[in-house]
Batch of 4 targets.
Target 1
Amino acid sequence: MPDLVLISDSSMFGEDIPSICYGLRGLTYMQIEVTGPNKDLHSGSFGGAVHNPIQALSEIIAQLHDKNGRVTIPGFYDDVRALTRKEREAFKKLPWSDRKYAAELGVKQLYGEKGFTTLERLWARPTLECNGIWGGFTGEGAKTVLPSKASAKISMRLVPDQSSAKIAKLFERHIKKIAPKTIQVTVKSLHGGEPAITPIDSPGVTAAVAALEKGFGKTPLYQREGGSIPIVVQFKQLLGIDTVLLGFGQPDENAHAPDEFINLDHFYGGIQTAVHFFNELPSHMAGSRKKR
Amino acid sequence: MPDLVLISDSSMFGEDIPSICYGLRGLTYMQIEVTGPNKDLHSGSFGGAVHNPIQALSEIIAQLHDKNGRVTIPGFYDDVRALTRKEREAFKKLPWSDRKYAAELGVKQLYGEKGFTTLERLWARPTLECNGIWGGFTGEGAKTVLPSKASAKISMRLVPDQSSAKIAKLFERHIKKIAPKTIQVTVKSLHGGEPAITPIDSPGVTAAVAALEKGFGKTPLYQREGGSIPIVVQFKQLLGIDTVLLGFGQPDENAHAPDEFINLDHFYGGIQTAVHFFNELPSHMAGSRKKR
């Protein structure tokens, strides 16, 4: 039986900023279909008589966040593990500018749950996003249809200790509750995955921190990742072991694209770090066992 | 210079129910595009940082009707000509069942502006309909995109004395006003047409009523139509003359479809009515001239 798993599939925080990723978000991916009239209608002859399914779907989606950017599904936040003071402090040490980030993304103003920094929202808070919407006439020009159906794909990113299956149920129940009687709604679950976290004082993480310090000559920073690596959850569930995410790439290196590259300094720093990691690990494991 | 125009492009109210159509709605057809981030993003890595354009568009659309089904655009109803008591009474004489209509359309409950009957809403009240919406991933399965853009086609049916150009301006101003600072919105006008009404005491209409009575052996009912026949507006604007809409088809005869048909009784009744119309017209025109 192994003591832990090491995966190099995460990024460093930025150029020459070694970091250790200790948390991943999970996912609940749903699809909603709203049906109004039993066929597409002429919006002149029928407009004013029935609830337009695009309008009804929009009204449902608009109710899923409150004015503070919080998800309104009852129970949605119940199982969210609060950030520790140590984690919040660690995130604050990361070099970050909301203004620069907003400019890079081309938005005048960021948006999200009030009371949390951008990195906290991205890594440690659950979110609800519309991934797709469609209904009616979507081609060039004007067609006066009052459509029969409108649909949306909506997914939620989860954090420990939320459960993907439980969130799917809460979502479905809430949508059915707020759907007006003028339309019919179906909700189905397309996909799910659990969130994962490796405690920052676990031996794998403390060994990785010591190794990064030696490999890069700098104290690494702690970060999480907003996306998901499903196998990490399976290692924990099936084998009961933590995964250390020790990656050396950078976010702008076109991962998975034909022109992917890696900074050579990070490549050599990564080799050093890997060697140090295996040197460090036994004493950290021993220390951990002693504590127990 | 002609005295009036006669068009047979409207329907009778139903089988063996001769009716005269004296009003058509106009149209203002708009398109909205909401842009959030400058490119499609990964909903895991970025979910929680920016306002999702599908969400923002849904929030905009959800604000366009109030709880009473009224359009919330300031000034939208300012130029609406109120129904006369005579018109409301005439509509009430038409054979109508909301329950039967809802069942035919497959909805549990009708929807629309409170304080008006279904026929009033369809024929004599302006409405706002979403004709199309699209954004993000709309294929089979789950793709975790946080899209850069979301769009909708929205049209409004107009009644006398609303102006298509004025309503387009009010719409654009309102959308820009309610759009949040977290996104950018563009609004464009795709198409417009004016509403039309032919007074029910005008000589063409009174002659048509007398002709229908003789042609079908029944007093005809008055109705309007929720759709538009743009040429009617142009005859009024360019020639200053009213149009009489004297049609003999029925709503369920598959107009414009390959298997279009016409009830033979209505066909022969229509021939009789047309003959009577031209016999009746001179005296009604003379009576009208005398009144002036």
Note: Chain B touches chain A through 78 residues (CB under 8 Å).
Target 2
Amino acid sequence: MTVIKLLNKPKLVNPIFIEGLPGVGNIGRVSAGYLVEELGGKKFAELYSEWFFPFVMLHDDHRIHLLKNEFYYVKKGSHCNRDMIILTGDCQSLSPQGHYDVSTKILEFVKKFGTKEIITIGGLATGELDDKEQKVVGAVTHDELLKKYKDKKLDFNAGKKVGYIVGATGLLLGIGAEMDMKGVCLLGQTAGYPIITDPKAAEEVLIVLSDLIDMKMDMSKIGKRVTEMEEFIKKVEALQKKALAEITKQSKSGGATKEDETRYIG
Amino acid sequence: MTVIKLLNKPKLVNPIFIEGLPGVGNIGRVSAGYLVEELGGKKFAELYSEWFFPFVMLHDDHRIHLLKNEFYYVKKGSHCNRDMIILTGDCQSLSPQGHYDVSTKILEFVKKFGTKEIITIGGLATGELDDKEQKVVGAVTHDELLKKYKDKKLDFNAGKKVGYIVGATGLLLGIGAEMDMKGVCLLGQTAGYPIITDPKAAEEVLIVLSDLIDMKMDMSKIGKRVTEMEEFIKKVEALQKKALAEITKQSKSGGATKEDETRYIG
Amino acid sequence: MTVIKLLNKPKLVNPIFIEGLPGVGNIGRVSAGYLVEELGGKKFAELYSEWFFPFVMLHDDHRIHLLKNEFYYVKKGSHCNRDMIILTGDCQSLSPQGHYDVSTKILEFVKKFGTKEIITIGGLATGELDDKEQKVVGAVTHDELLKKYKDKKLDFNAGKKVGYIVGATGLLLGIGAEMDMKGVCLLGQTAGYPIITDPKAAEEVLIVLSDLIDMKMDMSKIGKRVTEMEEFIKKVEALQKKALAEITKQSKSGGATKEDETRYIG
Amino acid sequence: MTVIKLLNKPKLVNPIFIEGLPGVGNIGRVSAGYLVEELGGKKFAELYSEWFFPFVMLHDDHRIHLLKNEFYYVKKGSHCNRDMIILTGDCQSLSPQGHYDVSTKILEFVKKFGTKEIITIGGLATGELDDKEQKVVGAVTHDELLKKYKDKKLDFNAGKKVGYIVGATGLLLGIGAEMDMKGVCLLGQTAGYPIITDPKAAEEVLIVLSDLIDMKMDMSKIGKRVTEMEEFIKKVEALQKKALAEITKQSKSGGATKEDETRYIG
């Protein structure tokens, strides 16, 4: 079960849907987070899912937080001449099947608000740490978008660089195209492993994004904001790791789940 | 499929829902078990689920017992000035997905009886065996509960101690909040691994719980009761371990499930 | 999806449902198979399920056979004074979840024919090869059955011997009881690993079963019949093993499923 | 969720359904691909599924491609005296359960167009590289087909050679028979591991297929076509491998999925 809880129902005109969830370099997550903060995005819906990790986190030492993805909207104005829906959140699905289910639910939801265009943001692990300027890499669902964006600072050679896009960043576009939505993916290039949030790559993506949708955005606070967000992202990651270790140990001493048991369970 | 079978339908007024299932130190399980016995809780519903271990246990050497969670109610009276629903049982879900499904079904069920408040009981593995008094650790779904309970013997610093709560103890509160129920989690501190039922931690939790909901309860039999319950809990754990070992061996000699097979099956 | 395909709809009066599927010592499988052959059981329904191994077998070198469970009926007559439904088949579920789903579907199906009583047949691995006569071990869903069968050659001490019953043999009784069906489980004692079909244990179970339901059955052909059935059972097991090995190798050379991949997939 | 998207609805008369998806030697995939190209098959439906790998591929370096299976039709004419539906595609299901689900959805779909006969194409890994002519191996759902095809160049001894058929190639026939469709499976013999696309085996299968359904087809381009297709097939395989490695590494540095985690998750 994947549940999307509508907190309030904004009237949006032809909104563009922008996704940025945790992943390689957390570029999607921090880019979307910065967008929401700088543009004053208003949360209007939350998604939680049986495909997420089965725990709650503790905020401010005492407040219980269910893992969620969150939908924000931004109305058009001086910063941008069109309405936006921005999706960000704590995590992605734990299982392959979950990725399909969660992505489909997200698309059905944003389509109801009139969404016809999608921009997803992710990272591309180059495995190198170099100082050369690295262009944001792009991929599209329809060739017409390639023409539309051909003069932007985007390398449309994702196929050569990586060949595939895993999870929501890819599936939202792939399934979206089946649902008559067109889209482009922006992949910031980052060194890769170990995963470290890469604010520079996020900034580069945001510059391209601003150019793509004629958005005016103050980039000066990105360093500070990313540092703040990073702390939270790291916490989620660390807790998942710790929770997992505990579950494993627990299992070994006779709890409901054991290594052998799961071998059987498959 | 998770099935809740209603045995009889009590009329309850604004019941508080208290959960205690097997987990760290089995503190939830034995606390809820003691509550049911001391307050004369009456069973009114049973839950079983495809997410539980696929076996039946044998009681009294010959009677077949499907793994279950059980709902009891206690009407208000001299012991407590409000109605209660208490959930306890044999086990929790085997899989992450199952935790979400079972928790959601439980919450939908108790909500029908007018539940607006939840208390879940669990354990927190400190990894230390010390004699110092260790306060019960708490976490809440809403800040107003923090104010309400601020003078109780509860350390609202679960975030510092652990950061997350796995399984029903966490999800019932996290998902419960989405369904407009408020709640608090009581975590008894226990040494942790290997899992040993910790009656002292259970007693401490029960003292805090009594204080929280103005409950009068004779604590003198807790040692004896826990010893009784422990035997059963240990049996369930041991059987799961043994069943698992058998399944694994069986598989290796050509049964339907093999180590390699499950690697494929994923 | 678990599908039960009705081939024809017999009129049955208060039929007793007898289950024997592959498992420890294949005692259930061969006992049920012998029952069907000796009593001239007529197949009236077939079950197949997404929880079974995803392959077809080849019979007579060229004919494709989907893995199935099969329902037979026997009308009352000189051999037995009541109608019977007998379930046997190629395999059980591959996953824990599947066991619950398949068992529930089976019970819903037989209940429609008026079934109120269930007898499941399984094996109990003692880990010993001895010549002493080993009584069939029993377990029941309701204490009244213990009284009813107390003079039969059944040791109602399964709890001491094993403590649990895995898969259909256990769940059909456990879930059956929730659906107002009563039942008894007959466990033939067998040495256990490696799994070898144990015709002697099957014979002992059939003798007890005959006594339980006042059935007259010629036992003289059991050795021959079991030998025939054993060949097929071994084939299924061997094919699953081989299929699995192939899948695994295939995966390693770049197929859709790899060891690492399944680690991710979970 | 498995979705079949109808692009246009052809009127077909008693079409024969021919399946060729990736698998051993990719014989099915390249045979079906060649059929579509040579006979000018028109795509009329696409299938995608949550049971496929959760990523999108990049074509022509920039275009996003959701993993799919594709349905083509060919109307009867000079090449063949009956209508055909041909299924080919990028991949098969990742999980056992998925194989059943996807196969069932495919069969329900083609049945709506009046399909009563099925031919599936696969490979049989002999583990040997020899130059002797190796006949195509066959298996059928109904004995009448054995008679019908007994003079064709088909060895109906698949049972001796392999004993089972995994995935869509087997299940489409096994489940198809339950849905009143009859069918035959053509297995090209190939050396096997490591998987290398085997155009010679594909050619042999196509010759037998042409004979079976009185199809006239120019075989002269098969070498060239297979080479083209092979590049794409290899790419899909390589990307899945690479994507997987990335996911694994990502997990180890704190992402949502870790080796230990999946041990727990089962």
Note: Chain C is about 40% helix and 25% strand.
Target 3
Amino acid sequence: MAQPVDEFDLIARFFEPLARDMPGAFGLRDDAAVLRPDAGYELVVSADAIVAGIHFLDTSRPDEIARRGLRVNLSDIAGKGAVPLAYTLTLQLPSETDEEWLSSFSGGLAQDQREFGIGLLGGDTTLTPGPLSLSINIFGQAFENKLIKRSSSRENDDVYVTGTIGDAFLGLAIEKGEIDLSSSHDRAELVDRYRIPQPRVFVGPKLVGHANASADVSDGLVADLGHICEASGLRADLSLSSIPLSSAARSTVTDNQPLHLSLLAGGDDYEIVFTAPKTAHDALVAISRESGVLITRIGRMVEHKIGAPRVIVRDIAGDQLALINGGYKHFGRSV
Amino acid sequence: MAQPVDEFDLIARFFEPLARDMPGAFGLRDDAAVLRPDAGYELVVSADAIVAGIHFLDTSRPDEIARRGLRVNLSDIAGKGAVPLAYTLTLQLPSETDEEWLSSFSGGLAQDQREFGIGLLGGDTTLTPGPLSLSINIFGQAFENKLIKRSSSRENDDVYVTGTIGDAFLGLAIEKGEIDLSSSHDRAELVDRYRIPQPRVFVGPKLVGHANASADVSDGLVADLGHICEASGLRADLSLSSIPLSSAARSTVTDNQPLHLSLLAGGDDYEIVFTAPKTAHDALVAISRESGVLITRIGRMVEHKIGAPRVIVRDIAGDQLALINGGYKHFGRSV
């Protein structure tokens, strides 16, 4: 682009249309916005930033970057049983950002706004000499005092997870050329699971009243379940064979137990891991059927032993397997 | 620091203590937070990011960077007549960030949390190969449907501004060595006004019921008043001699009308510009006395003429002065 982008012009052209259905956003023409949860609900907030080269590949398409930014935040809200409403976006753009980039980026936001029924509430745009980054605050609503916390798991709860685990981890490894698959269909499926996270926004709110504790799986199943265990003062006892895998992932890890185990530590699943009492089982089966999302029992919450790992995984013989890495830490992790 | 900082360790040591008085933050140990305005109030949100080398000098002290980040956001809330409650922080740290830096930074946040009665609600921390940046979302509450908007100014309203204008602009020019002052006292006062913004959080909420329209002055008086004019379909007619200047600023611009005028276009004042009917005058005098903050009438809202500037400034003879720049645009502006 020949001309540098003017901030006000940029907002008017690319971002104002995204705020049209949010009356409290005042068309992005004021210094603040107003947000009202429905009667009987309380406001839920979560914030996550993503940085080029750390949380997504430098080669990512602008619309995919936008959708990733929204979806990792939507996953946090879904993991708490809340329904998403709106978001704010602060965007740091390298000076070479052009109109084509902005058009694709805002198009990605628009697409996911429609898909998830949310709108843009406000934000800030600035140039940076550093990498592109976006910081999103997402707002949702939950029934008053009904947010599903990490800290409220109970001993003997069953541990469940939505969807399948490890697809995004394998998809990223394929993108980086670290592994290859003979089936182009499997390859595409796994790469897609990495590129476009599928936050479980329709399942999350249905878990209210059934799940005792929950978290979204972003840093890896073992790490995020570990957070529930620590916050609740318990440990989780899982069986490797019960971890739900897609057929593409299953064919990849056949006869490779270390790789199979590493899926439990890989990040970017954006599923929900939760614990629930035995009495919730039938309701969970119904929720799975209704939403079309797999819900699988993978283990049980037990008493914690001091010094022992928070999450243990057993093979089919019941022997405890060694986990090398408790989960990726997104802080400074390179994609 | 010899060791790289672990994200969870960093949060526990430097940020968790900042969330202690916010029950809805769950000790920063969950994926989302809950925020409840008081009965009869609605939630107000604003977001602003600041980037090293663009919005503050690379040489700034960490505690000052933290306080600047909070205060530019507090100013947005104050400018709408709302009372601040809490904030989220997403922080992008260069890899060389050490514990000393983090300790000073979080100390600055703690200091301003106490001063303004707010708490940390959540956030995200990540490394970046780029410059240090922080993105803050600030939350406040305003009486339901009482947020003071930009768009509701009326013809014949008086235009008022809090505090004094131009100090921070001169303070930055001194910091950059562009101007010098003989009085070290004046120099220190102006530099301080640039380094530590003083958001008008105690005045803002008192303007509810008196001001028809308002905005905080961050991009320059002419630019921000211009936004009120545009949103309200009016123009503002100001008198240069009525613009309130500190004695340090007054001595600097004596006999230098171009510099005097440039104060109206300089940014970083973090005052409130607002319009109010004549009937509000006595109440505003009382608010000024009660808060100890100067409130000055600087002009009047009049009918807009198509093609004319939104804000005009007259000299003492009533002649219109030429404004070279309508206000700084923070987008990509270098400090």
Note: Chain A touches chain B through 65 residues (CB under 8 Å).
Target 4
Amino acid sequence: MIRIAIFGFGAVGQGVAEILMQRERIERWIGRYEVVAVADSRGSLCSEDGISLKEAIEVKKRGSLPEGKSVMEIIESMDFDVAIEATPTNIETGEPGLSHIRACLNKGSHVITSNKGPLVVAYKELAELAKKKNVKLAFEATVGGAMPLIKLAKRDLAGNEIISIKGILNGTCNYILSRMEQERLSYQQILAEAKELKIVEANASYDVEGIDSAAKLVILANAVMEMDATFNDVEIVGITSITPEAFEIAMEKGYTIRLIAEASRDGLRVSPRLLPLHHPLAVRGTLNAVLIQTDLAREVFVIGRGAGKIETASAIISDLVDIYGNDRTN
Amino acid sequence: MIRIAIFGFGAVGQGVAEILMQRERIERWIGRYEVVAVADSRGSLCSEDGISLKEAIEVKKRGSLPEGKSVMEIIESMDFDVAIEATPTNIETGEPGLSHIRACLNKGSHVITSNKGPLVVAYKELAELAKKKNVKLAFEATVGGAMPLIKLAKRDLAGNEIISIKGILNGTCNYILSRMEQERLSYQQILAEAKELKIVEANASYDVEGIDSAAKLVILANAVMEMDATFNDVEIVGITSITPEAFEIAMEKGYTIRLIAEASRDGLRVSPRLLPLHHPLAVRGTLNAVLIQTDLAREVFVIGRGAGKIETASAIISDLVDIYGNDRTN
């Protein structure tokens, strides 16, 4: 019996809960399980025998979870095998996720996280701690949402040397730029449209300034390319100064403009770059797209949904199967 | 010590040998190994202590391997842990690969193959035999060359239901169609050009009639979608009747034409289809591109080199690491 704790119960945490409610499907992959705790920043539902996820979701819909143990109290007082850490990202302090992950690893629980902050701030420390404690720290959901980018680069391309990783890691920027390409409107006009459609959050600066892309790039650089990178190592230019005229000139020559994050031995960079209109990375809409350049397989592109409640939750589930599942490759 | 036998010593077999000569690189992944036999259809080099791959490649360059044990004699008389089966594909009989793979699995060796024939003819039998003998049958190289398509769909998207797999599985057809798109020349003109550039073999019918794509689709349907499909289940239309006028009309509407192989619960189909010019599957040149449609992660595209000596060999190496390697996902 696998005992699961879910920390953070926003869109991603609830998405995980919704998938875990499909018990028949998931038990085919990992066998029997119970969720013994669900906690958000204000409260929690806990039971050693397993809580009702349906109830947790319904309670959350009406407000927040009932007052109860905090995440740290749950970690200290309850037994669980794997923690799903889905609290909000803070890339400056890594908190509260960093303390949660550290405490879980220290007590010998596996951790699966969608939270970029702790990995941006302390990847090396956490990876070494997981190794020392002989547990897994899995984080497919932190980069590229539903795209199995980390597993693909680290495992499926085994035997290859990874020369560089580059691509589109932020769907909001890609939406804005591909709309500018199609409509020839200004950045401000498209941004306003995107906010109206709720594709972009009210405060979009984290996305459009390239910060979100840079955070993801740091995780890729450390996890896949075995660099020892921090956020300050990334040279960052966002998309706010791109004009319709720039698109005009680019497109006359058969190019478009996308915000590209790139990690190579030359360093880490997030910046608007020209791409041939027919380049596989020149995707439209909110898609993410990444090119993994290797020495044997050469170019491998992966494209998919970089965000979304169920999409991101699916990456967490794939990590869960990875830890507990039967190998189905044969 | 892992003892490897290589059966078939054409481009792919030699590509594998070239990579295995990079001993330091490969031992980092799988530990110590020796290649104890290399065989082609006319001869072989064998030694229980390990042969020189450099010598094997040099000898082969001057003609064929020296007279010696046949593949079946090697399987019967030598000890090895894993066979790399890279003999030429025959999708009607599956031979000679089918007999090789059957004999290797029966004696308890793992098998890694780039040969589509045996899997098209007898996927179910071979998969069950491998399971019964508790050995691995790995075949990433049979579909999509260097693209880690099978591992991605079967393992990285664990927890998902695969709804359909569709895409471009033959680089030759894609080269011809994307040149027709760009140049507005006839199929015959582009085919002649491609033959001159040696992108297309003298006898291209296996490619352009859609047979190669259909064979790969059968493997995907069986291995990834757990269907029980045979070659005769595939409805096949090739690309030989596509006219420049068809491209003209398609492109006026913002579409292009590609040869798409698709497996879904509705059946198996290989046929020229319209794609929006900006669709991620509308790749150019000899690339392969596949869309895996799932219920949770939704659309995941993978694009890469579907052929090439080292590229295809890299898929075989990734299978080898998969069988013997340390898990590097943590």
Note: Chain B has a mean pLDDT of 95.
